[in-house]
């Protein structure tokens, strides 16, 4: 007998950062709120629905947001508060299932196939979660209910804000058929253009293509497209995704030369080290061996350089020293200037295995 379909939720807080600001400051309610620092280099972290009416969106330059909505209220982000609310929301999730996969502070997948609460359906579970979020945080969330992750994520956006949309197994094909292919995960503007060359604009048209033709054109990604067009996604909800990198980065007000970056590298090393210490407290069995320096040039080219040591760095000063030294490995044309610098710690390994490796290779 085939396994019964999974019951997956994607829960997404509505305009999260902006909603927290409006909740905590009543004078902001009903007004267009943009969460961003002002300045030529700043980008929008979040926009309230009142600001979105004017076309303001996350990740757009703050100066453009100000042009689109001159009456917007700009509020600098307060991630300490946002993380505190996110923890509240995750505690609500945990009452219903242990299978929670956070994607960011404001969204997560939940597998409620066997929910702790014993509610009759995944839809009831989604409604119970949303009601608890509203009661305990005074914020709203939207939810998608579907047999797999990618469909649940599409569904959560269907009745935003403050809504629920359900895609039942027998509805999958009819739901997907008219959708633009750009709604499928991983299909961006470039892939949309390549599919348009095949006269494919909708998921239904993509479904009509045979698997061999897709694989000849797109390789392994062709098989994934074939599956997505049929609503197939076997990826499970993964509650414990291992940390790959802890990092901090900053965009400068004015572009800088390579030899002017040291104080900024030191500042980012301090932030990255603080984040790494929090990671060690949460997962004491894993340590990082690699220091990463990230640079973005004035023409938006991203450069990374890294160094992996036999033993993990032992201090913020050691991280900063390595990151500064990595500048020597950046080949750059005369006059190159940089708009961003980042420092990260990566290459996480199990501490016990690291000890075994050190003993094996004579490292002390």
UniProtKB/TrEMBL annotation:
Q: Which domain of life is it from?
A: Bacteria
Cell location? Cytoplasm
Which InterPro entries does the record associate with it?
A: DNA/RNA_pol_sf, DNA_pol_Y-fam_lit_finger_sf, DNA_pol_Y-fam_little_finger, DNA_polymerase-Y, DNApol_IV, IMS_HHH_1, Rev_trsase/Diguanyl_cyclase, UmuC
Coarse class of the protein's main subcellular location: cytoplasm
Residue ranges occupied by any UmuC domain in the UniProt entry:
8-188
- One of the record's GO molecular function terms: DNA-directed DNA polymerase activity
Cofactor binding, note field: Binds 2 magnesium ions per subunit.
From which residue to which does the signal peptide run?
none
Stated EC number for the protein is 2.7.7.7
Cofactor(s) in the UniProt record:
Mg(2+)
The catalytic site is made up of 107
Q: Which Pfam families match?
A: IMS, IMS_C, IMS_HHH_1
Please indicate which residues carry the site annotation Substrate discrimination.
Answer: 17
Sorted UniProt keywords: Cytoplasm, DNA damage, DNA repair, DNA replication, DNA-binding, DNA-directed DNA polymerase, Magnesium, Metal-binding, Mutator protein, Nucleotidyltransferase, Transferase
For the ligand (Mg(2+)), the binding residues are 12, 106
Catalytic activities: DNA(n) + a 2'-deoxyribonucleoside 5'-triphosphate = DNA(n+1) + diphosphate
Which sequence ranges form a coiled-coil region, renumbered to this chain?
A: none
Q: Which family does it belong to?
A: Belongs to the DNA polymerase type-Y family.
Q: What is the role of this chain? A: Poorly processive, error-prone DNA polymerase involved in untargeted mutagenesis. Copies undamaged DNA at stalled replication forks, which arise in vivo from mismatched or misaligned primer ends. These misaligned primers can be extended by PolIV. Exhibits no 3'-5' exonuclease (proofreading) activity. May be involved in translesional synthesis, in conjunction with the beta clamp from PolIII.
Which PANTHER family has this protein been placed in? Answer: DNA POLYMERASE KAPPA, DNA REPAIR POLYMERASE UMUC / TRANSFERASE FAMILY MEMBER
Subunit record text: Monomer.
What this protein is called in its record is DNA polymerase IV
Native source organism of the sequence = Lysobacter koreensis
**What gene is behind this protein?**
dinB
């Amino acid at each position: 007998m085939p396994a019964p379909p999974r019951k997956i939720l994607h829960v997404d807080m509505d305009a999260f950062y902006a909603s927290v600001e409006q909740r905590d400051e009543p004078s902001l309610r009903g007004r267009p709120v943009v969460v961003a620092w002002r300045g030529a280099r700043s980008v929008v972290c979040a926009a309230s629905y009142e600001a979105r009416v004017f076309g303001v969106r996350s990740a757009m330059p703050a100066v453009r947001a100000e042009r689109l909505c001159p009456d917007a209220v700009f509020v600098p982000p307060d991630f300490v508060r946002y993380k505190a609310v996110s923890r509240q929301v995750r505690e609500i999730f945990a009452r219903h299932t242990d299978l929670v996969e956070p994607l960011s502070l404001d969204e997560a997948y939940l597998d409620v196939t066997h929910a702790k609460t014993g509610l009759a359906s995944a839809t009831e579970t989604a409604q119970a979660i949303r009601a608890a979020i509203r009661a305990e945080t005074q914020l709203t969330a939207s939810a998608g209910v579907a047999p797999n992750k990618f469909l649940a994520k599409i569904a959560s956006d269907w009745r935003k804000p403050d809504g629920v949309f359900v895609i039942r197994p027998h509805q999958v094909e009819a739901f997907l058929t008219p959708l633009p292919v750009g709604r499928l995960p991983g299909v961006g503007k470039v892939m949309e253009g390549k599919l348009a060359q095949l006269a494919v604009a909708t998921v239904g048209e993509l479904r009509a293509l045979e698997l061999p033709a897709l694989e000849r054109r797109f390789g392994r990604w062709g098989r994934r497209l074939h599956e997505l067009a049929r609503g197939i996604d076997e990826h499970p909800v993964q509650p414990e995704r291992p940390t790959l990198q802890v990092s901090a980065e900053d965009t400068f007000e004015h572009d800088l030369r390579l030899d002017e970056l040291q104080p900024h590298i030191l500042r980012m090393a301090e932030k990255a080290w603080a984040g790494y210490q929090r990671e060690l407290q949460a997962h004491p069995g894993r340590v990082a061996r690699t220091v990463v320096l990230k640079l973005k040039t004035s023409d938006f080219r991203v450069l990374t350089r890294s160094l992996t040591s036999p033993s993990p760095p032992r201090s913020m000063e050691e991280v900063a020293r390595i990151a500064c030294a990595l500048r020597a490995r950046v080949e750059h044309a005369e006059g190159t200037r940089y708009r961003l610098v980042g420092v990260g710690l990566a290459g996480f390994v199990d501490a016990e295995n690291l000890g075994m490796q050190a003993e094996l290779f004579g490292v002390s």
